[in-house]
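[job 4471] stage=fold_predict status=RUNNING
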Amino acid sequence: MFTFLDQNGCKCELSFDRGPFEIEPKHVLVFVFYNGKWLCTINKKRGIEFPGGKVEPGETLEEAAIREVYEETAVKVTDLKWFAYYNVHETTPFCKAVFTGRVERIDEFVEEHETLGMTWLTSEELETHPNLSFYMKDDGMKKMLQEVKHHERQW
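[job 4471] inference complete, writing structure tokens
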């Protein structure tokens, strides 16, 4: 278990063990690596971040991950693999299930209400881009990127 404070001062826990978490995941986050770059969405309020969001009633975590990536980026992902749990202790604590996925296809983006579409960033750009979302800068994200980079060569 990796524990840290996020940019908002909330205690967070990151686990790469698949066992049960104290809070059932109701959010998803997806890492997609394609042609040497990471898929990111451009959130209108927060800036550049990995795609993800809330699970809707009746959806599995995997269905939510596929839907959220597509809604935010117009990228259809497949071959989802569970990667981590990310627990955030805000006023109302929540847990994200983190997945990796592969690109099946890239469609033309039609602007939605939260995002301006997709952007593809190298690993170096993920560390230095000036418009990163707050959560892309915390120690948990750095730890997840260290772990997921081991998989880059396999993709």
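[job 4471] summary: The chain has one domain: 2-154.
[job 4471] exit 0
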